[in-house]
Amino acid sequence: MTSAESIAGRTTVSLEQVCELLQGFIAEQRSKDELIHREMSAVLRKYEINKETYRQRFRDGAVRANETPKELYTRLKGLYEKWMTPHEKTKEQIGDTIIMEQYLKMVNPELRSWIIECSPTSTDQAVTLAEAYIAARQAEGKFRSRIMLKLW
Description:
This protein has helices at residues 4-8, 15-46, 51-59, 69-84, 91-106, 109-118, 123-139. It is an all-alpha fold. Helix 3 runs antiparallel to helix 4 (69-84) and helix 6 (109-118) packs across helix 7 (123-139). The mean pLDDT is 81. It holds the Pfam family SCAN. This is SCAN box domain-containing protein.
């Protein structure tokens, strides 16, 4: 492979040499990008920074000291994009995520914990899990369906 240094001393360079250098540069850049991605992923896992973290920060509602309206908007938009990843999801998937969040807020804490432990991938699946949980408890004679919902 021709190095950039050896080519730099020449007055003429062939197209093949330029292509070879570019291919080497691109391969090196991809390797660096992959390394950075792996390292960032490891840091996020270590500190347990995930979509739930971004959701909580989005819902926090606190304005930082000396934060301008534009800075607040930019921060919220960034948190939303990290939480919802709109470039990866459809409108229906984003809606399902918001409905799931509200659904979990409205059910009994015991039921909520159980649903979260089961890691449903959709609100429909969460509802099925909730119904199965309640049916099992009713069979044991411990709960009535209404008791599993929060009573305000």
